[in-house]
Amino acid sequence: VGESSLIFFSGYPQERTAVTSEPSELLCISAAQLTSLAQPQISGTSMAIKLRRGATNTFIERALRFVNFFSTLPKSTHRQLSTLLGLRHMAKGEKVFCESYPLDTTFILLEGHIQVWRMSRQECISQELLAEYKGTSTYPWFGGLLQDSSHTHLGDAFAVEPTLALSLTRSQVKQFVLVAPGFKALCMSLASQHKGVDHHRNDRAEKVVPQDLQVSRIKPT
C-alpha cells in the first residue's frame, strides 16, 4: 500500500504502464469495496487499517486530479487534501441526508447520480425536485457545509444509482480551507448567485419521485 505506483484505479487515466516480468499476484479492489474496509467487523485489524488508510488516501489524491477546481491545484495539495477527505459509496435508493437536518458534510461527487427532493408535509408521492448532480457536473459537489453551516438542508438527497463521493465533515473544514481556500470562496460565490438554492436545480414544477426512491422520511430527533 505504501507504494502508490503499484496501485491502479479503473475509471481514471493511468499515469504509467505496468508490465509484469514474472508471474505475479495482484489484489484487485473496487472503490466501493474499499469503503467497506471501514466496517467495524474488520477495521480493528492492523492489516485492514493499513490497507484502508493507504489505498483510500491514494485513491482520493488521484481522483482529485480529475475534479473541476481541484484539477488546477498542485499534486502536493492533492496529497494534503486526501488526508482530510473520506470516501463514501452510496447504494441505489440510499438517502444521503434529510431535509431540515443541519449541514454537517459536503460531498464531492466522483461518479453516479444524486437528486435532492423537497418532501411534502403530507408525505404524498408528488414532490419537488430541487437539484441534480452527476459525476460529469461542472460543479459536482453538494451538501452546503462550506456555504453556510448555520443552515439546514433544503430537501432529502437520494442516490439514483450507485454513487461514489468524497466527504468533508465539519471537523475537517478549518484545515481543508487553509489548504484550499479557493474552494470555500467558490462555494460561497455560487450560493450567493443562486440565493442558497443549488445552481443545478431544475424548474419548480412538481415531479414524481421514482418508485425505487420512495424511502420513508427520517424524523429529526
Quick take:
It comes from Haptolina brevifila. InterPro entries: cNMP-bd_dom, cNMP-bd_dom_sf, RmlC-like_jellyroll. The chain has 221 residues and is of the alpha+beta class.
Walkthrough of the structure:
This protein is of the alpha+beta class. The chain folds into 2 domains: 4-82, no CATH class; 86-212, Jelly Rolls, CATH 2.60.120. It has 6 helices and 7 strands. Strands 1, 2, 3, 4, 5, 6 and 7 form a 7-stranded antiparallel sheet that branches. The model is unreliable at 1-5 and 196-221 (pLDDT under 50). This is Cyclic nucleotide-binding domain-containing protein. Residues 69-177 form the Cyclic nucleotide-binding domain.
At the fold tier of CATH, the topology name of the largest domain is Jelly Rolls
Number of separate structural domains? 2
Name of the CATH first level of the largest domain: Mainly Beta
Give the N-to-C terminal Cα separation: 41 Å
Q: From the alpha-carbon coordinates, what is the Rg to the nearest angstrom? A: 19 Å
Structural class: alpha+beta
Mean pLDDT score, rounded?
Answer: 75
**Could you say what the CATH architecture of the largest domain is?**
Sandwich
Q: What letter string, H or E per element, gives the SSE order?
A: HHHHEEEEEEHHE
CATH superfamily of the largest domain: Jelly Rolls
Q: What's the overall geometry?
A: globular
Q: How does the major sheet shape up?
A: 7 strands, antiparallel
Count the helices. How many? Answer: 6
Strand content: 15-25%
Low-confidence stretches: 1-5, 196-221
Helical content stands at 25-40%
